[in-house]
Amino acid sequence: MSGMLAGKVAVVTGAGGGIGREIALAMGRAGAKVVVNDIGAALTGEGKTEGPAQTVAEEIKAAGGTAVPNTDSVAERASAHNIIETAVQHFGRVDIVVNNAGNLRDRVFHKMSEEEWSQVINVHLNGTFYVSRAAANYFREQESGAFVHMTSTSGLIGNFGQANYSAAKLGIAALSKSIALDMNRYNVRSNCIAPFAWSRMTSSIPANTPEEKARVVKLQKMEAGKVAPMAVFLASDQAKEVNGQIFAVRANEIMLFSQPRPIRSVHMSEGWTPESIAEIAAPAMKHHFMALERSPDAIDWDPI
User: Fold this and answer.
1) Mean pLDDT, rounded, for 68-91
2) Is 86 helix (H, G, I), strand (E, B) or coil?
3) Smallest Cα–Cα separation from 202: which of 54, 18, 60?
4) Where are the domains of the chain?
5) 16: alpha, beta or left, given left = phi > 0 and alpha = psi -120 to 50?
6) Taking every annotated instance into account, which residue ranges of this chain make up the domain Ketoreductase (predicted)?
7) Each residue of 148-167: pLDDT tens digit?
8) What's the CA angle centered on 94, arms 226 and 193, to 5 degrees?
9) Catalytic site residue 165?
């Protein structure tokens, strides 16, 4: 197939449904040979089946593309390595990695269990590391490659009941930046997308209060397919000058996110004491304190 990704091999994790499926299909339409990875489990981890990955791979082939399914987990080093090896064994190389696999274990922080914490960290943050690390050697040797990672405004801005998910997603943004810095010399790029879309994962968000129900209604208007064009672009040679960036995609809107930088400084020539900090430094910086906001508070306009 011809297209923006013609001749390239893409690995898309968590591609059995939702955003991952749309990205895998779009990669196939753009000419990439695609490894469709999905363990075929519910968000809670039960009921593993080959079905979703196989189904999406068949959809890509039915549209004239090339694809193979893979059901390995991203959450362990060996199985994540197998995902990348699937690409190399079937197609001889790997050019693109989209780290999309995810899960949710939402719980207010003071009630969150260690298991709920580790299950989310293992899939999102560790999984992104394991899959990326498995591809890194190939990218370095061929002196080319593109990583596209899924972060979230829950981590970039904040949200209720998602300490595990927020920590993992903010960690992914930092990991992406580090990959971009370390591998830029090898023409390897690493960027993030914070997607706004209704998917199998977001469908588990509680909708009990009027505010929560209104939020879900807005999310349902944001189609998963709207995220795919940005992923294809970032994976393509057209994005060769784009590295270490964080984007958000919400319906027909694309946002570029800022990244933490100093916004205010105070200096005391003789050094600070706790008392002088309380009297001088804290009041001087207070006007610049970040508000205790959630994602819907900071991005408070309706999607177009």
Assistant:
1) 98
2) helix
3) 18
4) 9-256
5) alpha
6) 8-204
7) 999 999 999 999 999 999 99
8) 30
9) yes
Q: Which residues sit opposite 107 in a β-bridge?
A: 162
Q: Region 293-302: what's the mean pLDDT?
A: 91
Residue with tokens 């570029």: 256
The overall pTM is greater than 0.70: yes
Instruction: List pLDDT tens digits, range 26-53.
Output: 999 999 999 999 998 755 555 555 699 9
CATH 3.90.79.10 fits 9-256, yes or no: no
**Strand extents, DSSP E, 78-208:** 96-99, 145-150, 188-196
Cβ-in-10-Å burial (0-12, 13-18, 19+) of 273 comes to exposed
Amino acid, res. 137: N
**Whole-number pLDDT of residue 153:** 97
Q: Is 266:281 a contact under the CB 8 Å cutoff?
A: yes
Average per-residue pLDDT for the chain: 93
Cα separation of 73 and 37, whole Å?
A: 8
Structure token digits, residue 56? 């999406």
Question: Choosing from 130, 138, 165, 186, which is the catalytic residue?
Answer: 165
- Residue 138, helix vs strand vs coil: helix
Confidence (pLDDT) at 211: 72
Q: Which amino acid is at 252?
A: N
Tokens in use for 59?
């959809």
Does residue 1 surpass a pLDDT of 60?
no
83 φ, ψ (degrees, to nearest 5): -60, -50
Measured in residues, the chain has a length of 304
- 3-class secondary-structure state, position 7: coil
CB-based contacts of 204, cutoff 8 Å, min separation 6: 43, 104, 106
Tokens of 118: 């580790």
